[in-house]
Hints:
The protein has about 325 residues and is of the alpha/beta class. The protein has 9 helices and 16 strands. It comes from Streptomyces cyanogenus.
Amino acid sequence: MHVRGGATVPSAEGAPKGERGMAVRADASDVLVLGGAGVDTIVHVPELPLPYADSYMIDSGIRTRAGQTGDFVALGLAALGLRTHHLDLLGDDPEGDLVRALHHEHGIGLTALPQPAGTKRAVNLVGPDGRRLSLYDTSRAHPDDRFPQATVRALAAASRHVHVTITQPCAHALPVLRETGVPLSTDLHDWDGENPYHEPFAYAADVVFLSAAALADPERTMRRIAERGRADTVVATAGADGAHLLTGGELTRVPVVDPPAPVVDSNGAGDAFAAAFLYGRLSGEPPERCARYGAIAGAHACTVPASRADAIGRADLLRRAAGPNP
């Protein structure tokens, strides 16, 4: 087991144990991010959907970089000055090395448990307008994958908040997380409101993010999440239409924020929104202010090329939030 931002020490009686008989000593953190570590290969295509052809010439190059949903949330949180720790399964492979290097470069604590199937990976096809189509390699996960309960409990107990991605094996960690009493958030991404896989996440979290892209009636889905689960806040992002915020039973619209530069890629925009929203929440800001932070960070993320892993900093976020037109 590889640990940064904490320590790995020989197990003692009663100590929380990770893999291979080692104990995890968890340093205090603001946010623990669970799951969602991996590598993307970025391919810029002339249009989406991509018409069939025998071959395409990719003049912009094909690039592989670390950064899936959990990595991007952790990166966004760290860029905003929050002490961040990330827990996931990683392979002993080149992709895992890229993920480890990303966390080391940005000072993000990482507990990487062994994944014999290899590090999660995906291929992102990115169109000229910044839209993407993601192809996920599901062979690098197994239904029996689990995080050691003691490791989850120790890291969560040392954190002010836990953000849970919907990747394998995070669903199995939800009961342990709820036992700790630490507030939870999750991102359901493009949930259609029907797929049962997402429901444990939707109903266990205190803050739920999702995209409205696949929802016929976003308000109905948002209210169902709040009524059936624990969420006091539900946010549905809607791209160029801004976002919907449900808190205290009241639904409001979050205005869209104009990007500060041309849009080149939408990948990571939702993760940036979630990170900035959580920064506001942990700073004691009201939900409306948190959502404004999220909209600003999401707009910034759309201006970052897919080949880079970058996030808005706290000074820039607060400066733009203070202006009339961020």
